[in-house]
Amino acid sequence: MRPTKPHSINDLIKRVDNIAGLTLGQLANEYNFKTPDDLLREKGWTGQLIEYVLGATAGSKPLPDFEDLGIELKTLPISYKGKPLETTFVSVTPLMNVTGMTWHTSSVRKKLNHVLWLPILSERDIAPFDRTIGSGFLWQPTFEQDALLQRDWEEQMELIALGRVDEISGHLGDAMQIRPKAAHSKIVTDAIGPNGQIIKTLPRGFYLKTSFTGEILKQQFQL
C-alpha cells in the first residue's frame, strides 16, 4: 500500500528517523519499490524511493515536495568523512520573461525556505543498493545564508535578463551556480540573446555548491 502523506512535521520526522541506518536496497524491498538494474542510468531513483516512502506529494510540480507542510526534500550523497559528493539541484532556471522577477518570489527561494536534508552514504565503492541512509534533519536558511543565495541569484539572473546567458559558468556564485540541465546536448530551449532576440540554448538549472551544503552539514552535526 502506498504510504500516505505525513499530516504534521512530527509525523514526517518520525518517518525519517525510522529509515535512518537502512540501506536503499532494504528500504526498496520493504516497500516493494521497483528497482532498476543499473542505477547509473537511473540517477533519480534514490530520490523517487525516498519521496515514495516518506509520502511526498508534489511530484514534478514547482512546489515543495510536502506541499501541505511547505517542506522540500533533498537527498544528499555524502562521503565517509561526511562531505557532500555532488552539487544539489534546486530548480529549473527561467530563461525567458525574467524582467520583474524577484528573489523573494522566486521558485528557488520557495524550494529552499524549509528543507528536509537526508544524507546518504554514497561513496563510489559502495554498490547503490548498499548505500546507507543517514540522519535526516530540517533546515531553514539563516539570515546570512539567505542573503548569500539572494546575491548569487540576482547576479546570475541579471546576466540572463541582459542576454548574456552563455557567459554564465559554474564558477559564478558563492553558494549557488547555474549550469546546463539536460540529458544530452540536443535538448534546447528558448533564451534571450545578446541583442534581445530569441536564441536556442541548453536548459539550465540552479544548483547548490558543495561548499554551501557542506556548511549546512557542519552546522547540524558539528563536524
From TrEMBL:
Record-annotated DNA mismatch repair MutH/Type II restriction enzyme Sau3AI domain positions: 54-152
The keyword Cytoplasm belongs to this UniProt entry's keyword annotation: yes
The superkingdom listed in its UniProt entry is Bacteria
GO terms (molecular function) for this protein are: endonuclease activity
Q: Which UniProt keywords are given for this protein, alphabetically ordered? A: Cytoplasm, DNA damage, DNA repair, Endonuclease, Hydrolase, Nuclease
Pfam (any one): MutH
Which family is it part of? Belongs to the MutH family.
NCBIfam families xref list: mutH_TIGR (TIGR02248), PRK05070.1 (NF003458)
* Task of the protein: Sequence-specific endonuclease that cleaves unmethylated GATC sequences. It is involved in DNA mismatch repair.
Q: What is this protein called?
A: DNA mismatch repair protein MutH
Gene that produces this protein: mutH
